[in-house]
């Protein structure tokens, strides 16, 4: 019988997972599809390298992220996201969504609107750096989605359609973990166990170990393995929406972050289809013996509900301030 301590911490919590690595510059698309499909069936996590974003620019994005989190609390409080938006957060996470000017008809859509940016005199060039990274990361996400399409026996441009990633909901999140030490036995984590609820997530990290994955969420006890940082690579994981879309052929994976006493920075980029996209079982993922497990749902409806389920209501914050 497993002891309580092992159950709480997760067996194998010091093990490092071996993940497939996909070279986006490789001309051998069949090998890329094979590696991705194997990864999606095994862990739902993989690396991508040679993705087109230079190491020099990645270093600049991390440097700018560090500058942001070193701002005074007073400066960060100015960027607290408002009730309509999802963009600024005074905590150690900061969202940057698709920039749509106030007054634009598109600005009323969930997850769209004007972002709340640090003042140029406070962080010169910061907005330009983040907007460029937002654009370039989206191209990486589209490249990965093309390989996913082939792995699901779809046309290579399936996700490129205007109603899908042609007008995507794409959100950049800068993350900073302080120097705390996590203790799973006491429920203390850098980030608690969760699966992402969108299509795919691209994650860039510094060189500090912290991310863990659980390949089988139903295992007793759960087995947690570290994902090693790889210089210049994105760690990619599948979200719940893709699991739903693929009729559970590809599965999203539980992951968490444990702090080891070192500061840690990471940058997550969440890629989702357009607001009006209908997420229904893909034609290649159903049969008479394997009918659709979920009803069709509009992307905006699905994401808004999942977001409300997992994010604090700012009205609670406002009440404490009055």
What are the key terms here?
alpha+beta; 9 helices; globular; 322 residues; disordered N terminus; four-stranded antiparallel beta sheet; seven-stranded mixed beta sheet; 15 strands
Report on the architecture of this protein.
Belongs to the iron/ascorbate-dependent oxidoreductase family. This is Fe2OG dioxygenase domain-containing protein. The protein has 322 residues and is of the alpha+beta class. The protein is 30% helix and 20% strand. The chain has a seven-stranded mixed β-sheet with strand order 1-2-11-8-13-6-3. It has a four-stranded antiparallel β-sheet with strand order 7-12-9-10, with no helix packed on it. Strand 1, helix 2 and strand 2 form a beta-alpha-beta unit. Helix 2 crosses helix 5 and helix 3 packs across helix 5. The radius of gyration is 20 Å and the shape is globular. The N terminus and C terminus are likely disordered.
In short:
With 322 residues, the chain is an alpha+beta fold. Helix content is 30%, strand content 20%.
Task: Give the arrangement of secondary structure elements.
Layout: H1 4-9, E1 21-23, H2 29-42, E2 45-49, H3 55-69, H4 73-77, E3 93-96, E4 98-99, E5 112-113, H5 126-151, H6 162-166, E6 169-177, E7 191-194, E8 200-205, E9 211-214, E10 225-226, E11 234-238, H7 240-245, E12 254-257, E13 264-272, E14 278-279, E15 297-298, H8 299-310, H9 314-321
Parallel strand pairs: 1-2, 4-5
Antiparallel strand pairs: 2-11, 3-6, 6-13, 7-12, 8-11, 8-13, 9-10, 9-12, 14-15
